Every structure is written in C-alpha cells, then in structure tokens.
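I keep forgetting this: the sequence line spells out the residues, with the fold written below as integer tokens. I include a record here:
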Amino acid sequence: MTLDLNNLKTKDFYYDLPEGLIAQTPIEPRDASRLLTLDRRTGKIEHKHFYDIIDCLNPGDCLILNDSRVLPARLYGIKEGTGAKVEFLLLTHRDGDVWEVLTGPGRRAKPGSKFIFGGGVMSAEVLEIIDDGNRLVRFSYDGNFYDILDKIGQMPLPHYIKTELKDSERYQTVYSKENGSAAAPTAGLHFTKELLEKVRQKGVKLAFVTLHVGLGTFRPVTADKVTDHKMHSEHYHIPQKAADMINETHKNGGRVISVGTTSCRTVESAYAKYGDIRECAGWTDIFIYPGFKFGVLDGLITNFHLPESTLIMLVSAFAGYDNIMNAYRTAVEEKYRFYSFGDAMFIY
C-alpha cells in the first residue's frame, strides 16, 4: 500500500487483533518470550526466541536502554472532610512536592481540595486544573516520598491487563534505576541480568539513557489525521557516557540499536534539537510517524503495539509501513503475544 505522507490517516494504522492474544501475564523466564526479526530492507521475517537476540548483535554494536523505573503511581485515598473516596495517578513530577496527576472522580478534586492517603502518612492539596482536566497537586508527608509510595502506592498496569500482577518487579526492567515513569519501557522487560552480561561479553556496548514514560505515550489517537494528534511532553536525560558510546559506535562503523520506543524518542529528540548526540536533558514531545528522517538509529528492539497508536506509527516510520503491517499480520497468524507483557520484535 502506498501511503500519502501528506495526508496520513489514523485508520491506516489499524489491524485486527483477537483479544486472546493480549498477554495478561509475563513469560518466565523473561528472555523466553518469542522474537520476530524483521529485515527492513527486504521485509524478511524470521521467528526466534528473545534469548537469540545475542546472535542478532555484532561486536561493536551499541544498545540504548532506558533506565527509568516505574513508580507505584496509583494512590487511593479519601477527601478531607467528607471521606469520599478518590484515586490519584501520578503522571509527571513538576517541582519539589508538586506533581501533575490524573484524578477520579475529577469533580471531587477542585482547587483547594485536600486528600488523605495511607491513613494519614501522606496528604495532598489540589493547586489548579490544567490541560485535559489533569490536576497540579502538592503533597505533604514526613520522610522520603518514594519510600512512602512504595508502601501505599500500586503499580499502574495498562487498562488491557486484567490479571493481577503477583510480583511488581516484573513490570520493571532488571536495569531500572531512575524513579519517575508512569508506565514501563516494556521492550526492556525481556532482558535478564545474565543475558545482558552475555551481550557485554560479546563486545556490545550498553548505553543507558533516561526518559520518564508518561501515559500520554499510550493515549489513543482520536484525530482522523495523524498530524492533528498532539503528543504529551516527557522528561529525558542523556549522560555524557551514553553520548560517547553512541558517537564512538557510529564512528567505528557499529550499529546503534534502541531497546524500545522510549529510548528511540530520547536519542532522536536530542539529534533533532542539536544535530548530534551530546550530554543533555529536557522535555520532548517528539512525534515520529512515516516520513520522519532518523538521525541515530540503525536497529530497534520493540514489543507489538496497539492498533492506531503513536507507537505503531513510530515503528512504521523506522521499518517501512508495508513491512510493519505485514509483520503484524504474520504475528497474529503465528499467535504471538501482544502489548506490554507480550513478545518482541527486532527490526534491523
């Protein structure tokens, strides 16, 4: 199919997925998930397991990994004075003890309203209502905010996962370090510590960057025209060490391979802004869809994404629209597992 890059339609990125292929629980061990490999030049598809990724990498390659850690960002509390129940979902850390949150029910969270969580170990006051009805709130507590969250917060699993997660660490990558995400960078969930060590021993560099994943990444595209969709901003940081690894890899003729769309958006945001990769930090609302010119990536490890999502648009931009739609049809026919706890794809 020939895409009209000047008039991309959201419906162009639809595919039919049987509900039974939406993974409800993670595979054990992590690297036992399936791996579909896609040659973006020829469209050739092969079927492997994720532990075979070691054979897909070459000495001198560089993997870019997002080390952001998912917060137990779902809080249940009561409204001060009335005792009415409320749910907060932490979205973005703004400054100090101020966070942008999603509240439900929203009518209970007017500016000036106060709420109590964890039987009183934490409270919050609504400061203002901002875009999309989200709230800016200021939290009050004694001690360390993240320690308290670990005690009273719950993991914010995506809406399509109906099964309770027994071990919250299975929604974290084994290399997660920097607190701040509202959702996991799921492509990295397939790596075990042992597999990463094998990757290192093969001579592949591991460059760690940080992008705190917001729920805006997964927000449905409701606009008919792709270009009418507005991305939400997310905070990113590329350390000097990672920038050096990426630049050295390209200089020496190796491949730079992003683990996940969040790592991809991090480095391509920096390249779009500066024309190179350097130590930097900031906010990005980059929207990658067919027609985008990549400046950094040579390969991408990713999961299978929702129909009509910004993420399937991103992988279509990298691999080619026809290649991706064919790969997704093949994955459905072969009964791959989809979405956050599902199987993986390596595009090269």
